[in-house]
Amino acid sequence: MKNYPEFILPIVTLLIFVFGSTSLRAQSDFGGLWNFDEADLTATAGEDLEYMDEDTMADLVEFGTTEALGLPAINDEVANVVRIQKLDPDQGLVTELPSDSNGGGDTINIWTGIMDILIPATAVGKKQSLIEIVTDDWVAGAADAEIYIGTQNGIGTSGLEFGTLTPETWYCVAIVVNMEELWGRIYIDGKKVGEVAAPDGSLDGRWSLDTLVENMVTFFNDDNNESEEIFVNSIQLRFEALNDGQLMALGGAAASGIPEELPPVPSFIESWTPDDKYAKANTSLSVVLNAGDTTIGNDTISLELNGKALERTVETTENIITITATGGEALQTASEYELTLTYTDSAKGEQTESVQFEVPVYYENFDNVELGANVDEQAVQSEAAWTA
Length: 388
Hints:
The protein contains 3 helices and 23 strands. It has 2 domains: about 15-250, Jelly Rolls; about 270-360, Immunoglobulin-like. By secondary structure, the protein is mainly beta. About 40% of the residues are buried. The strands form 3 sheets. Strands 1, 2, 4, 5, 7, 12, 13, 14 and 16 form a 9-stranded antiparallel beta sheet that branches. It has a 7-stranded antiparallel beta sheet with strand order 3-6-15-8-9-10-11, with no helix packed on it. It is globular and about 75 Å long.
């Protein structure tokens, strides 16, 4: 919860939201890790957490095991967790930030926040804060926490919600922010559930961690008093943008907490073409495969369309492999297809992935449509109002 002096305020426009990765200028990519194994706010790595108001929060925070607190185990294992009750606007947990910067700005513009959390049934359908960065004293309309659980039980920001959290269930939630590239992503249990974009001018703005004035970020605090009971197994903060593969490797919540050292990244599909359930007859077929930390031999890669092998080219740039179908017959309208990729990696052996799509008689996604000037319909002659 911050108040910024006028002389350091950048001009900030209303956020629409987004995140990504880039080079980092901070001293370390690792910010902090809190697994609550000592039944207090001691850090597993980095700086200890602190209470915003220790005197009033003593009776609102309870440390214990999942078993002692009557909670589900995490992957059948008992875990050390913390129960945080509904808090007032001047209450929450806070961590100190380094006096450093990244992303080409004066603050930490590139970061990843990860939490293992459980919401009780009593919190369902109620908005509650996860991460608070600024107040509306700095940015108009920023009284809401920057990251929160929304009324639809999804992970929210600026009125948007992504994914769904089922009550009494442990989840690993990750928020990846890149204000240098103006994008942001939200993940639940390693799966990307949402992506949003920030407007120009967002560098060192609402979504950047303050390393200029108060040098801190707060958890579970909200200026609007939108807080509910929540259970937390682990919190991690990194000053880098983790990618899809890294978060896929982390997966769901773990009783031991979020690991400081990231696990090996498996191979995974970055994109398909077509990337929709519909396609045009002249669509070129391709797949972008990320090898992660594995090794994939080009001679193990094959493409099939409806079970028929396709000729293909394979281009490799570092660990990104692009497979493109060549020389195949044109797709037929009013037809359904399944595009299948098979390959072998050094970790899991043979892998098969597929995507299904349809080629309708007519399909237009308007991706390349350019809108012209508005037309006064009443001024158009009736004979020219509509054309075939």
